[in-house]
Every structure is written in C-alpha cells, then in structure tokens.
Amino acid sequence: MDGNNTFPSFVDLDNFLTKHNSNFIWLLVATILSCGWIIYLTYYNSRNIGLILTLIINRLYKDGYIHIGSFSFSVLSGKVMFRDVYFINPDMSIRIQDGFLIFKWWKMYNPKQKQHDPKAETRLYVTVNGFEFHVYNRTDLYARLQKTFGLEPTLIPPKKEEEEQEETLESVNIKAETPDPSTSWRSLIPVIKVNISTGHLAFGNHHLPQTLCVYFEDAFLTYATKPPSSHLDQFMHIVKGSLENVRVMLVPSPRYLGLQNDEPPRLMGEGFVVMQSNDVDIYYYQDEPGLVPVEQEGEEEAETCSEDDKLQDLPPCWGLDIVCGKGTDFNYGPWADRQRDCLWKFFLPADFQAMQVTEVPQPGKPRQIQAFELRMNIIADATIDLLFTKNRETNAIHVNVGAGSYLEVNIPMTVGQTGYSPTIKGQLLHVDATSSMQYRTLLEAEMLAFHVIASYPRVWNMPQTWQCEIEVYKATYHFIYAQKNFFTDLIKDWASDSAPDIYSFVPYSWAFKIIFHQFEMLWAANQHNWIDCSTKQQENVYLAACGETLIIDFTLPFNEFVPTTCNTRFSLKAEDTDMRLSLPECHPSRYPLLTLAKDYQNVKLPPDMFMTGESHGPPPPKPSKPRWRNVTHIEAGWVDCWSVPNFLLIIDYTWHPIYPQKADEQLKQSFSEMEESMLSALRPPEHSSGPHTSQPRHTPATASNAYSRMPTDPSELPPDRLHVEMEMSPDSQIILYGPLLRALLAIKVPSFYIAYLLLFQAE
C-alpha cells in the first residue's frame, strides 16, 4: 500500500482478502443483499404483510371483504401502523387512508383498581387519517320484507329453522359482567382515545337523488365505561369528544339513475348545507342492560329495600347529547324535507304490518331500553334559514337565535297497546326573524318554546294525531298583506303535488295551539296598501294590537280520502288587549291626533258619572299595572284607540279542495286533445241562434273531458262557507279618530288572511 494514498487500491484489497481466506465477490454480494434487505424492510415488507393478512382474513371471514394495504408493528414502542384499510359488505363500507395505534404495555397493571372509572389511565391511543363511513343499503331489512310479502328470497338465501333458533338463543343470551374486575378486558384498557383527521360519513346510493354527508376536519374522541344509571344494569358505555368544522350536507348522488328535476334552493359548495358549526361537542351514552331480577317474596324482604334502590330501578338509558358552539347555521325547507323523505323511505321502508306489542321482560331476561333521547344545545348565537323557491327564485325566512336554545327528541323503543308516541320539544331564545321580501321585518321574541307530540297507532293506516303547542313570550309581529302570497308560496312548495293514492293514504290530523304571552301585532295601514321599505325611518301608518295573552287554537283534519268538503274551526282568544295607532312624522294628521289624544286624557270623566243609578254602577276601575310594550310606547307617538279586556273570535271555514290530476289520465290525452282543452277556455262563446252563426264543434277532447274538466267560470263552482263569530266583553272602550277609520279601511282583515292560508294549505 502506498503511504500517500489513504484508501487501499483494488490489488491491495484483493491481496488482503486472499490472505484472510476470503473473496471480494462475496463481499459485494453481501453488500448488495444487505442493501436489498434494507430496501425491502423499508418499502415492501409492510405491504407484503398486509397482503398476507388480507388473504388470511378473507379466507376466514365470509360476510364481507377486508383489505389491508400495508401493516407494520414495533414491539418496543407498542406501535402498530396500517395504511389503505377498507371493509366492504353489501350494506356499508369503511375506509381508512392511514393510521396507527399505540398500546402502552409498559404501564403497571393494577387488577384492584376501581371498576368502570372514566378517569382511569389511558393505555390505548388510536390515530386515523382519512376516515370514511358509507351506508348504502339494508339487506337484512329488505330480505325481511321479501319474506313478509311472500316474495322469492333473492337477497339472502333462506336459513334452516335450526339455524334461526340458534341465532335467537344467542341473541337472547347475555353474559352478565362478573364482579371480579380482573377477568374483563376493560380492566386492562379502561379508556380508549381516538383521534380522527378528516372524517366523512355518507348515507345514500345511486338510487337516491341526494346523499346525506357529514364532514368534519378533526375529531377527538374518548371511549370509557362508568357505573350505570340503575343498579340493575351492568355498566354504561360513554363516548365523548369534540369535532371541528362540522358540515351536514345533501350532495347529488354520483351516477344517479333518475332525472334531477328538483333543484335545491341554494348551493353551498358541493351541495346543500343542512347544518354547519365550527365546534361540536358530543356525549353518547348507553347502558348495558342487566337481567330482570326475581321479585322478592314476603313483606319483610320488601321493606328492606331502600328508597334509593327503588328510585334507581329505572329502565336502561340510551341517548346522545350534542353541543354546538360558534358559527352554527341551520338550513331547511320544502326541498330538504323532500330529500329527507326519500332517504327515510329507502333506509326505513314501511312493512305495512300491524306492530306487535312489546312484551314485558320476565325475571331472568334482559331489561328493555325504553327510548332514545337526543339533545342539542346551542351555546352561541346561531342562524336558521327556511328556504323555498317560486319560479326558480329563492325565498327565505332568516331567523337569528341566541345562546341557550335547545332541542330535545324522544324516540320510543317499545310499542304499547295504543302504539307509540315520539315527542319533540325545545326553545329558541332572543328570536329575530326576517324575510326575503322588501319589507324584511317579521318577528321579534324573547323566547319561543315548542312541543310536538305524534301518536302512531299499531296499524299503519289508522288515524294519527299530531299535536303542536307553541308558546311565544314578549313577541312583536309585523303584518303586511303581501305576506299572504309569501306564505302561500311556502305552503305550495311544501305540499305534495302528486295525485291522491288510496294505497298509501294515512288519515291524520294536526292540532295547533299557539299561545302569546305579552305580545304586539303591528299592521301596516297605508292607503292603497303602499308600504315604505326603503329607510329605517319608515313613513308608514301602523295599527297595533297589544295584549297580555293571546291563544290561537285550530285543527287541520285530513281524516278522509279525497273529501268533497273540508272544515276547519279557528279560535282566537285574547285578554287585556289594546289597539293603538301610530302616524309617521310626515302625516298631516299626526300632531292634531296627538293633541286630541292628550286633551282627551286630561278631561276624561270617570265612568260612574254616566250611570243612571248608583246601585247598578260598577266600582271605579282599579289602577292597572304597567304592561309590557316593545314598540308601541306612548312616548313614541302611539295613541290608544280601543281597549278590550276579553276578546273571542271564531272562524268556521268550509271549503272545496281541488286535487291534482293523475299522471296516467294526462298521458291518455293526445297533444291535439290537450291543446283543445287549454284553448277552449280562451275562445269566445259560440251561440247557435241566428242564421249566420256556426254550429258548436264537438271534438274528442270536449266529449271525453266534459265531466272531468272543472268549470272555468268561478260562478259555476260550489261556494265555500266562512262563518265568523266575534265576542267582546261589555266593558270594552273605543275612541274613534278620523285617522283610525281611514286605517281600518286601508288594512286587510286578518281573519281573511288566515282563511287564505288555510285554503291554499288544503289545496
């Protein structure tokens, strides 16, 4: 070796290997193999292990397909990594882009630790990126429908009776939690933490026009168990966590087989956003049912039971609590409700069978969960938009609600002798509602509470009863006559335009009860129904009905199939009601009116001076307590015109509904017949008298549609009936001013406004 060269030459290296009984070729091979082995371990080993696991799992598991793209683990760090994992079966699919889990095996295990402690130490961490969960079918449910309707089983092959009996026995058999905590895996892993980055949940397929999707960017979830709500149950599962940037959307289904004729009123990104929020906290809980205990015999044993134990003998709990934070928006309307109905009918189809009464669990059998409870709380300001369309133009009702609003839904899991009754209740705080009309102001209220009770009988086509009670506190509502057309368009868009079908008809009735506590109702009473909407200082004449209590009660009956006439009774009852008048600054009668009202208040005589006899006179009126007013303050120029302690208005309305024509009857007509039927109403009448008049033409269209077409002249239609009764207490007082009479003539009567709404809703 040359002393000047730092590295040995090829000859020197060969001599060295020959001297030590070696060979350069073996060194080269070892180096290449080592590099190849390192490359294999780095890039291909995890993929080959995933391929092997995929083959083994799919050979053992036959109810779906499981794929693992790559799999690797480290014993020292307790870490398992995986990539491109998905599970597919006929009903759903789960996909994971990549992730890992860490099991802290080095932590000390204490078998005597407290059982079902949600604050226990965490041993298992799971992190997932790109999580997707898609539900697109319900094979078991549709196979059950095939069996119910006597169809040939094509989805699931029929099972033998012995296998069905074994499955029913396995489903009934519940192993109770052993008192020894060391025998349960939950004692080793009491808490599991899961972090999900970019999650996506989907419900739909190519047979549905829209797919319900739930997106979120980050989710931090924790699973644990805690003691149950009742000592008779085993324990309670809980999953709590937070989600960021949550969006619930209705997205057009790819490769949809039908026609997309129903367009959404508003597109926000990929589809229609039903709900979105920056921060959402969830808390899911479910009791693991225990066994029904054997009833105690003897009075002595019954007396030993403490009252606390009796109070804890509640059914197992099951529910979900959702808390929405900042940036919460809700969007709904007729179009979204139609998509909800399509999803509901596909994933929860009706079997048209009488529901069986849920049997009471016997001693030794598992306890029954009675209901599922859903609660949604809003802890920040939120918005609610009610969207609908008319002539491809979007209209909206925009509602701002304050923090503290909530919604509760109770869905029974058992069926009684009369069926079951789900309930919906909630309240909205600091309500501020506006519309997309030029006159935007609609409703302002301190609180709006609602309670809906639906009664479903056991037989699917028996009469259903829906009750809706709404309570509004400190409300100010703004009426204009143009709102009649606005709400009529909303009802028309929400109502079904399909022909009545006796096979799917279900009789039902809606009972509404609306209660206003401390209310103001303002009517714009300008001449010729002209309304100023341009500035904040609106130059409008207003009439206001102010009172302490207003109860509106009516029922919408839909108990008959295609009835000739429909009847609705509308009742309005008010207490301590006043009518006030306000004129704008530009009105020439404003200051004379204020002067007359002020002078009248100063010289007003007591009511007992107008009585003929002292014995028949009522006692002098007591000083009234101050009443709530939001807009109609005396200091703002409002004048008292009418005072009614008790007021009752009853509207009995009977109308003739008009039903849409069936599609098959329209298809039977040719284009010439349809053209003749449409143009016949526009042609002048033809008279047969006179020598030069032509004879009336008889076409196939006029002959076939003589009895099916409705009369074109409104006078030929049978009349509707509107019966109005008004009752006021005898001690009501009215002060007639000139501007008041002009305002009453200019305003539209509210009773006819309500009657129009009911008429269009029935149609």
Instruction: Using the alpha-carbon principal axes, give the shape.
Output: elongated
> Total number of β-strand segments?
23
**Cα end-to-end separation:** 108 Å
Strand order of the largest sheet: 8-9-11-14-15-13-12-10
Structural class: alpha+beta
What about the largest sheet?
8 strands, mixed, barrel
Give the proportion of residues in helices: 10-25%
Uncertain spans, ≥5 residues at pLDDT below 50?
Answer: 298-304, 609-622, 687-708, 749-763
How would you sum up this structure, described in words?
This protein has 763 residues and is an alpha+beta fold. It has a domain at 415-478 and 508-530 and 539-603 and 637-659 and 719-762. The protein is built from 15 helices and 23 strands. An 8-stranded mixed barrel has the order 8-9-11-14-15-13-12-10. The chain is elongated, with a radius of gyration of 37 Å. Mean pLDDT is 82; it is low at 298-304, 609-622, 687-708 and 749-763.
Task: Summarize the model shown.
A hairpin with a 2-residue loop joins strand 12 (382-390) and strand 13 (393-401). The protein has a domain at 415-478 and 508-530 and 539-603 and 637-659 and 719-762. The protein is built from 15 helices and 23 strands.
